[in-house]
């Protein structure tokens, strides 16, 4: 098989996005593919992940026009055989570029963008109607026009009928698990984007309440502050919360290992209630018990591992009591943390997901004659067996 170039492209995500940089592109590089990440960054990089930097836009309009023009030029220079995009707004550009340059194209559906747009509270009724219709247009275009669709969860994949639809979960790499435990007494921890949809003010409020029961309680945060979380972040009380900023992926396991409890609370929006948060897997990989919003889908997916607790994340007082009880119960924390680590080490890791991704890319890189031959062999085997 000729392993020609693969480009992952995003104009929205940050350059160290865990799914893109540390998982999918890393999986391709480690498998021997010629893979490059094209993304907004300060400068080009050659290792460990080849990266071509796009200029950072100063606003949405510049991102949709100027940054996409820079992306087109970068693609024309790199001329990949497979283009793998991560932003819905790139679907028209990617489809056009791939069709005019004889390339194959993959759309990576991190989330259900139709549900995501439909739940945006800051949009007025007519804006939401128009935005939802546009999101449906884009997902339909990706479904019918892309050579493959990669989805982050099974519920997201169900929106697509593309014959090359696969699910690549956000499980942690097994080698990333097992950072030496270094729990700090009372430390509640969250890693990820910081916004009100991700319950930033709620986490701070809950921590204040926990401190009344467990004086050592303190909230540690790591991640980007999104615009809708800026007001809460500007008012952080250092006696309650510490913000470590955005960490490189390699530093996250060690940071997580300092927690006594990992937090993941989200607004009950359709796009969140059926997600599989990377954070829960990161907590489990570090042997840290978690506290999560009590969504039915999360109970079905994560409950059987008995690696954490579910709380009513619309009720600050009830959540604070549950967290205080967990902080004061060392035996329970140890049991839950051990269960989570066992789940990760027994096979809940990105190695199997990497195989799904590299297998898909290998098939897309096959010459048409080889693909037809492989289909023919399958057909003959089916005929013979019948």
Main beta sheet: strand number and arrangement?
7 strands, parallel
Strand order of the largest sheet: 3-2-1-4-5-6-7
Q: Helical proportion? A: 40-55%
The helix-strand sequence is EHEEHEHEHHEHEEHEHEHEHHEHEHHHH
Number of strands: 13
Please identify the structural class as seen in this structure: alpha/beta
Global shape: globular
**Ends: how far apart?**
31 Å
Whole-number mean pLDDT: 90
**Poorly predicted parts:** 382-386
Number of helices: 16
Rg to the nearest angstrom?
22 Å
Please indicate the percent range of residues in DSSP E strands (runs of 2 or more).
Answer: 5-15%
Structural key phrases:
7-stranded parallel sheet; 46% helix; globular
Short synopsis of the structure:
This protein has 16 helices and 13 strands. It is an alpha/beta fold.
What does this structure look like?
The protein has 386 residues and is an alpha/beta fold. The chain contains 16 helices and 13 strands. It has a 7-stranded parallel sheet with strand order 3-2-1-4-5-6-7, sandwiched between helices. Strands 10-9-8-11-12-13 form a 6-stranded parallel sheet, sandwiched between helices. The radius of gyration is 22 Å and the shape is globular.
Record the SSE blueprint:
Elements lengths: L5 E5 L7 H13 L4 E6 L10 E4 L5 H19 L3 E4 L5 H11 L2 E6 L3 H6 L6 H21 L2 E4 L2 H4 L7 E3 L19 E5 L8 H12 L6 E5 L7 H5 L6 E3 L8 H5 L4 E4 L5 H4 L4 H8 L4 E4 L2 H7 L5 E4 L4 H12 L2 H16 L4 H16 L2 H18 L1
Parallel strand pairs: 1-2, 1-4, 2-3, 4-5, 5-6, 6-7, 8-9, 8-11, 9-10, 11-12, 12-13
